[in-house]
Amino acid sequence: MKLVIAIVQQDVLNQVREELIKNDISRITVSRCTGRGKATGEETIYRGQIVVPALIPKIRLEIACNDEFVDTCVQSIMSSARHGDGKVGDGKIFVVPLENVYQIRTGDSGTEAI
Questions:
Q1: Which of 3, 16, 19, 2 is nearest to 91 (CA)?
Q2: CATH of domain 2-113
Q3: What is the mean pLDDT of residues 16-25?
Q4: What CA–CA distance (Å, rounded) separates 31 from 58?
Q5: Which carries the bigger pLDDT value, residue 53 or residue 22?
Q6: What stretches of 1-114 show up as alpha helix (H) in DSSP?
Q7: pTM for this one?
Q8: Does 26 score more than 70 pLDDT?
Q9: Please, is 54 exposed, middle or buried when counting C-beta atoms within 10 Å of its C-beta (0-12, 13-18, 19+)?
Q10: Residues in contact with 54: Cβ distance below 8 Å, sequence separation at least 6, in sequence order
Q11: Neighbour tally for 69: CB within 10 Å
Q12: Strands 49-51 and 44-46, how do they pair?
């Protein structure tokens, strides 16, 4: 089992979600987050001063999946979250091992709980 964590831009959330559903991955957790990578954000003028935002708003997706779905999940996110040929700030995907999962309602654990 793996936990796929993807940080993507806000405007691609629906595209990513639709692509995941198309590939039979429908159990996802979505949250808003802010962060800073290579993308610097857009400069704005506030009270006559040029201000560069320190943190940029993004969307964080978390998907717990069985090992056979990891590649499908990653490829779905990469193909739907990329802007054109790719640009700075498109996002990142992290795949981390998932030791165990427990379903509270039934008490199932492991791959049955996903």
A1: 16
A2: 3.30.70.120
A3: 95
A4: 9
A5: 22
A6: 13-22, 70-81
A7: 0.83
A8: yes
A9: exposed
A10: 36
A11: 19
A12: antiparallel
